[in-house]
Amino acid sequence: MDPVDKFVHAWAKQQIASGGYLPPFTSMQLEARKHESGGNLTQKQEDIIRWCSSALYAGGADTTVSVMRLFFLLMSLYPNVQKRAQAEIDEVVGQDRLPNIGDRDDLPYTNALVKEIVRWAPPAPLGLPHRVTTDDEYMGYRIPEGATNFDPTRYLSDTPQPDPRKFVFGFGRRVCPGAQFAEDSVFFNISRILSTFDISKSVGEDGMGVEPKVEFTSTVTSHVKPFPCRIVLRRGSAGERYLDSASLSG
């Protein structure tokens, strides 16, 4: 049995036995199957529940983490994008609370930002990137060597570009079953981070910003390689008050 399987499954069973637990996936499935079978689960039933729960855990610990690490890199590289998303969140949600999933439909630019992240560098590489290898000029536009563009507004025009979520999660019978969970999780985390923190380039000894290298691993799930950045708490934000209260209670 995989160590992750053991840990997740044993933890859920312990929470049920304690009586003071929030009903996560594993706990709900164990209780439902016990009710159906009259109190006892077969080994096969336990195995299926364990494999399903560990698959959810592994997905969140790999692909979602890949997207979140890339988010921090891109926000340090594109501060104007970050400021626009923060302005939208401040206007719609305010600073008395943190954003939640219920705010998603009212935050179109933040939603577009999430789309652009997964388009810019999908966690599961879908093919070779397209960019010029030397300086070029096309229809009056100068395109520098290696140029890339990160622009969430491409999904907000009257003729928006194709939604990358239609292909980054796969197709047909092999589409990712956790697509909705992943989208909600990424939006939830990104919106709350933007509400609470400012992300910028790391500062060198000379007081100047350190340009991070945009490099990725060549693994099945693509991860941006370690990079420096600066994360500062936004004063007056709801997140600041939550962190202060957590520190006092701790």
UniProtKB/TrEMBL annotation:
Binding site for heme: C176
A single cellular component GO annotation: membrane
Pfam families named in the record: p450
Pathways per UniProt: Secondary metabolite biosynthesis
Family annotation (Gene3D superfamilies): Cytochrome P450
Highest taxon in the source lineage: Eukaryota
Record keywords: Heme, Iron, Metal-binding, Monooxygenase, Oxidoreductase
GO molecular function, one term: iron ion binding
Keyword Cell membrane: no
Listed cofactors: heme
PANTHER family noted in UniProt: P450, PUTATIVE (EUROFUNG)-RELATED, P450, PUTATIVE (EUROFUNG)-RELATED-RELATED
Family: Belongs to the cytochrome P450 family.
Protein's name according to its UniProt entry: Cytochrome p450
Source organism per UniProt: Moniliophthora roreri (strain MCA 2997) (Cocoa frosty pod rot fungus)
